[in-house]
């Protein structure tokens, strides 16, 4: 795993520059230690501890916009990386039996830990060829229909469903509209709310609007620590309300789209911790954390009777949102 | 959500709508006269109102508020509004450019006299009792926030418990940004409520008026047992400018209009506003009690 290409590995986020500077210093000292045959070990030790504490400090205090940048980091593990590490014996299923096989959403049967599951995962693509093949993770209606077909298999054969969410959103194109992307997402929302098998969803990177929610209805919704989940991209929100996409950092902050914010708003149930300095620094550890979360949650859900699962799922989604109750409202008059 | 601008970097932008019907050609004083967005003719406003807000010349269907729609659809003095005590909160304490969502809500409430972008209740259509939800495109562009999701879910549950047909008139720019992910989740909430209603055998008819876009389309608007659209209504998921920017090409004529959706198999019928009451009554007689 960790098939991060070298270009992506060399990619430095603006706020990570001081961290990378320290890292370079350490590497240089190590190199000159070997070359000059001198002992810099105490200096190196000191720099290393500085490096770790700076990394910790930076990642504990990420702004919403910095979190978005981490979630979109080119070296961040993608669904395919998690499938490779975490899902044993993955049998991929193709096509929606209606129109096409949308590679933006991969579906299949797999074993995660000891659990047999149906896996539904949005795939953005790593290199240019794969990105084009899976349309940068922006699914067409056939992707959502394929996902539902796979999930129905889960219901039929009593396999729980695991959804990994990572998309900017459903694809905004002519074909997508002609083939009813809105209908495809709507049907998934309705059907996922009543599928008679446990559903666990995890946002692993970008949770982009309806395109993310289209495979995001379930019993437990989690986010990786530095993922984000939003009704509209920060750039889109900024373009409308601030009248310039450049105000995306402000929009990201205002919309409360980080895992911590959404846990506080009861939109999500769990936060899956990422390795120190983000999933891109240690994809293996991130996969391990994700696997542990999925296995633990599935075991919890397996203990609950299927009728109760459906009831709890309904109640969970029915509670979504914040309203206030007022007395004698102005709209109480007759229309 | 006032003006649509697309974002340059991402193919995925806002799903707010940019329909042409409300083009602000204020070259005539407000009040007596209005210009038709369809045929560009000058129309006597009162004549348009008497014609169900439809252009007497070209039959262009204009947008209208929820109260007006309810009085058009229901038998006189039969509509009993429900869930009027549910009002919007500002859960994110959202503010931008010195403005706040809380203030914006108060402005919209003062401007429209409504507390939110939907009215819900029970009433009669040609003597048939129905649960009716009508979105109000005049309130923050009919955007879907927590109140809309809550009232629609309550209405759906009410329809189930009273064994009534459920009719929802959609008119919306999509999910409301000011409530962030909470707005997005209303899509799932309303769909879950409709799933239960479906399991209980309830009849749900959605009526799509101009415009129905974004998260509204991708949830309850497209889940009707029967889906009716008004002529010429803009109905889609992504905004037209976002699509045009993504594909770097002009959109075909009539793209995302009711007639386009009918041709592609996503709605059951297009019904002229003057026939809507009788068509609804006929469908209820077939599928209802």
Task: Jot down its keywords.
heterodimer; A: alpha/beta; 2-enoyl-CoA Hydratase, Chain A, domain 1; 2 domains; 8-stranded mixed β-sheet; 15 helices; globular; disordered N terminus; disordered C terminus; B: 289 residues; alpha/beta; 7-stranded mixed β-sheet; two-stranded antiparallel sheet; 9 helices; 32% helix; 19% strand
Question: What is the rounded distance between the termini of chain A?
Answer: 62 Å
Helix content of chain B: 25-40%
Q: What is the CATH homologous superfamily assignment of the largest domain in chain B?
A: 2-enoyl-CoA Hydratase, Chain A, domain 1
- The outline of chain A comes out as globular
| CATH class category of the largest domain in chain B | Alpha Beta
Amount of beta strand of chain B: 15-25%
The CATH architecture of the largest domain in chain B would be: Alpha-Beta Complex
At CATH level 3, the topology of the largest domain in chain B is 2-enoyl-CoA Hydratase, Chain A, domain 1
Structure explained in plain terms:
- The complex is a heterodimer of chains A (335) and B (289).
- Chain A is α/β, with parallel strands linked by helices and 335 residues long.
- Chain A contains 15 helices and 9 strands.
- Chain A has 2 domains: 13-61; 69-318, 2-enoyl-CoA Hydratase, Chain A, domain 1 (Alpha-Beta Complex), CATH 3.90.226.10.
- Chain A is 47% helix and 16% strand.
- In chain A, helix 10 (209-213) links the parallel strand 5 and strand 6 (220-224).
- In chain A, helix 7 (141-156) packs parallel to helix 9 and helix 11 crosses helix 12.
- The radius of gyration of chain A is 22 Å and the shape is globular.
- With 289 residues, chain B is α/β, with parallel strands linked by helices.
- Chain B has 2 domains: 30-62, no CATH class; 63-286, 2-enoyl-CoA Hydratase, Chain A, domain 1 (Alpha-Beta Complex), CATH 3.90.226.
- Helices cover 32% and strands 19% of the residues of chain B.
- In chain B, strands 3-7-8-9-10-11-12 form a 7-stranded mixed beta sheet, with helices on both faces.
- In chain B, strand 5 (95-96) and strand 6 (99-100) form a beta hairpin.
- The longest helix of chain B is centred in the middle third of the chain and has 20 residues, at 180-199.
- Chains A and B meet through helix 8, helix 9, helix 10, helix 11 and helix 12 of A and helix 2, strand 4, strand 5, helix 4 and helix 5 of B.
């Amino acid at each position: 795993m960790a098939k991060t290409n070298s270009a992506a590995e060399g990619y430095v986020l603006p706020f990570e520059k001081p961290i990378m500077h320290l890292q370079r210093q350490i590497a240089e000292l190590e190199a000159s230690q070997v070359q000059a045959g001198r002992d810099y070990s105490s200096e190196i030790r000191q720099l290393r501890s500085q490096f770790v504490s700076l990394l910790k400090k930076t990642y504990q205090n990420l702004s919403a916009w910095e979190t978005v940048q981490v979630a979109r980091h080119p070296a961040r593990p993608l669904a395919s990386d998690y499938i490779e590490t975490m899902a044993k014996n993955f049998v991929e299923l193709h096509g929606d039996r209606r129109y096409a096989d949308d590679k933006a959403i991969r579906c299949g049967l797999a074993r995660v830990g000891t659990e047999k599951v149906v896996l539904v995962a949005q795939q953005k693509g790593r290199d240019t060829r794969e990105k084009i093949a899976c349309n940068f993770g922006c699914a067409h209606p056939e992707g959502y229909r394929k996902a539902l077909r796979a999930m129905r298999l889960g219901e039929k054969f009593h396999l729980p469903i695991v959804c990994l969410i990572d998309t900017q959103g459903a694809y905004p194109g002519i074909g997508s509209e002609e083939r009813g992307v809105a209908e495809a997402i709507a049907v998934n929302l309705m059907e996922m709310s009543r599928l008679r098998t446990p559903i666990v969803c995890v946002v692993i990177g970008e949770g982009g609007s309806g395109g993310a929610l289209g495979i995001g209805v379930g019993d437990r919704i989690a986010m990786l620590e530095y993922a984000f989940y939003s009704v509209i991209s920060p750039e889109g929100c900024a373009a409308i309300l601030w009248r310039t996409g450049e105000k995306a950092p402000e929009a990201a902050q205002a919309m409360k789209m980080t895992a911590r914010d959404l846990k506080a708003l009861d939109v999500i149930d769990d936060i899956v911790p990422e390795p120190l300095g983000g999933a891109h620094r240690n994809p293996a550890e991130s996969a391990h954390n994700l696997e542990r979360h999925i296995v633990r949650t599935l075991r919890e859900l397996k203990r609950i009777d299927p009728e109760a699962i459906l009831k709890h799922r309904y109640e969970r989604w029915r509670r979504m949102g914040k309203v206030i109750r007022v007395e004698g409202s102005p709209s109480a008059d007759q229309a | 959500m006032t003006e649509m601008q697309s974002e340059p970097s991402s193919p995925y932008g806002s799903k707010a709508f940019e329909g042409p019907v409300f083009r602000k050609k204020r070259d005539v004083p407000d009040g007596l006269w209005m210009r038709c967005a369809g045929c560009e003719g000058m129309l006597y406003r009162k004549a348009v109102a008497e014609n169900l807000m439809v252009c007497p010349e070209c039959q262009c269907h204009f947008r209208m508020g929820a109260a007006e729609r309810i009085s058009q659809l229901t038998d006189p003095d039969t509509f009993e509004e429900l869930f009027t005590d549910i009002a919007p909160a500002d859960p994110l304490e959202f503010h931008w450019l010195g403005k706040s969502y809380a203030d914006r809500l108060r402005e919209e409430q003062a401007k429209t006299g409504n507390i939110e972008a939907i009215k819900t209740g029970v009433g009669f259509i040609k003597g048939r009792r129905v649960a009716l939800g009508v979105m109000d495109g005049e309130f923050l562009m009919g955007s879907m926030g927590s109140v809309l999701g809550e009232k629609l879910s309550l209405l759906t549950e009410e329809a189930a418990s009273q064994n009534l047909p459920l009719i929802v008139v959609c008119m919306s720019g999509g999910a409301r940004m000011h409530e962030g992910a909470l707005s997005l989740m209303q899509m799932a909430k309303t769909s879950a409520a409709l799933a239960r209603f479906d399991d209980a055998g309830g009849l749900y008819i959605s009526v799509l008026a101009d415009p129905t876009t974004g998260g509204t389309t991708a949830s309850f608007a497209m889940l009707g047992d029967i889906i009716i659209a008004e002529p010429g209504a803009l109905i889609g998921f992504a905004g037209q400018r976002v699509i045009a920017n993504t594909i770097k090409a002009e959109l075909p004529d009539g793209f995302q209009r009711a007639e386009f959706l009918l041709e592609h198999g996503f709605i059951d019928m297009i019904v002229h506003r003057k026939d809507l009451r009788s068509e609804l009554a006929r469908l209820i007689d077939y599928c209802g009690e």
